[in-house]
Every structure is written in C-alpha cells, then in structure tokens.
Amino acid sequence: MNVLRFNNHNYLSNIEIHVGQIMQFIGVNSNTKQHLWQILTWYFTKHKYTESHLSLFDFAEPVIEIDHQVLGRKHFNCITIESVSDIHEQLSMNKGSLLFQFFHHLFDSPSIETHLKEMNETLERLIKEINQTDELINLVQDSEFRMETDYTEMQFTDIVQKYLQLSVLKTNSLTSIEYLSNKEKFNVLLHLIRKQLLKSTQPVLFMLRNYDDLLSYQEFNEVMEEIQVVALDHPHFHCILMPSQIGYVAVDERNFGAITIFGDIVRS
C-alpha cells in the first residue's frame, strides 16, 4: 500500500499514513488531526501561506509525498466539506464551485456556443439601434460631442452567475436547494462529482470533516455506500473522512486498510 508523508512540518514529519481511495482518520488526538486536516486543505486548495503559517513548517513551504514522489499542489481537484455552508457553497453558482464547473462543461457544447454568439449579435444590433434614435442623438444639443451607448459581450461567467439559479423540483413544486435534507444535499454533491470525474482525468480529492454532525448513522452508511461505488467506478476519485471524537466509522474489507488511528501514537 502507498504511504503518505509530510516534509517541513513540525508536527507531522514523522507520521506515515497508508493511502487508499477512501481514507478515514479517527482517534482522540485532536491536535494532530487538526494539523493533518490543515496541511491537506491548505496544500491542495492552493492556499497562500502567510509568514505565521510558514512558522508551522520551519519557514519552508510544506511538501506532501506518496512513496517519496512529490504531489504537486494542483494534483487534485480538492473539495472540502466541514459544514452545511460548505455544501451550499459547492452548490452555488460562485466561480470554482462544483456547480459552476458543471455548467462550464455544459457551455462547451457547440450548440450553446452558437446560442451565446447569437445573443451577442442581437445585443450588438440593439445597441446600434439605440444609438441611432433621435432622442439619444439630441440628448446633448449644441455640443462638440454626442452620446452613445456601448456594451460588453456576454460571457459564460456572466450568464451563470447573474441569470442562472439552481432549484429543485420536489413534490411537484420548485424549492431552493437549501431546503433539501443534508442527505439529499450529499446526493447532489456526489452526482456532481461523478459528472466531474467523467469529464476530466484530473484526480478528485473529496474531504469530509465532522460529517456526523450533518448525518444520522443510517444516512452516513447510505452516503458511504455511494462514495464506495464512486471510488469503484472511478480510480481517480479519492475521499478522506474525519469524524468528530465520537463519530461514525465505516469498516469493511473495502476500506479497513486505509483507516488511521490518532492516539498517543499514530497507527495506520
């Protein structure tokens, strides 16, 4: 099994973690788990280190390796979930979210590009017509200048962020995604991750923390089953789960070898 190592970190340099597609970090050593979560999220979300951050790493940027091969900070498309607000962010139209990436792929189709081109041509004709009206031409009379309107071509980002809103059809009525249950939100997240995995060969790292605050034990088992199916279907999908102190752990032959226990010593 591959081994994950951390260089230039005061607390983690001597720790080795067995790597699997699904990894679970459990145990009572909250301090070490916090440092582990922090370095993983900072590293793979391309967080910009401040001087105070670098003090944790002997003032050298940390390096993460698997079997002595350095993983670049852009290696993974990293998705981190610690709270419901993080789920809402990933299901928003904000740039960089899972939903934004999904629509970005949709807009790559030739037919949608054609529609966007036609919209901009219509906008250009509209502006020309406005500029030819007597009202605008005579707006400033007896002057050495005249008034004209101008426009900026509509881009993919403009349409997605300003004019699109995701709603859910449930019991024959449209509702905001915020009103779904947490289990349903996780289902939507995993569907979007599946779409991302089908569209791109870049490995995806899905990181879940304190998920036991969001899901019942039965819901956790159902989400875990879906995560395992995604991992089986897509070898470039990876998941890290870090429950709270008394949280849920899934143990079976598919993931037992990638459970790391953080106590007085770290066992992986």
Provide a brief overview of the structure.
Helix content is about 40%, strand content about 20%. By secondary structure, the protein is of the alpha/beta class.
Give the total of beta strands.
12
Helical content class: 25-40%
| Portion in beta strands | 15-25%
> Mean pLDDT, as a whole number?
85
Number of DSSP helical runs:
9
Radius of gyration, CA atoms, in whole angstroms: 25 Å
Structural class per helix/strand content?
alpha/beta
State the strand order across the main sheet. Answer: 6-9-10-3-11-12
The largest β sheet comes out as: 6 strands, mixed
Overall description:
The longest helix is centred in the middle third of the chain and has 22 residues, at 110-131. The protein contains 9 helices and 12 strands. Helices cover 39% and strands 19% of the residues. A 6-stranded mixed sheet has the order 6-9-10-3-11-12, sandwiched between helices. It has a 4-stranded antiparallel sheet with strand order 2-1-4-5, with no helix packed on it. The protein has a two-stranded antiparallel ribbon with strand order 7-8. By secondary structure, it is of the alpha/beta class. The chain has helices at residues 30-44, 51-54, 84-90, 98-106, 110-131, 134-137, 156-163, 182-199, 217-233, and strands at residues 3-7, 16-18, 22-26, 63-66, 69-70, 77-81, 167-170, 173-176, 204-209, 237-242, 259-262, 266-267. The mean pLDDT is 85. The chain is elongated and about 85 Å long.
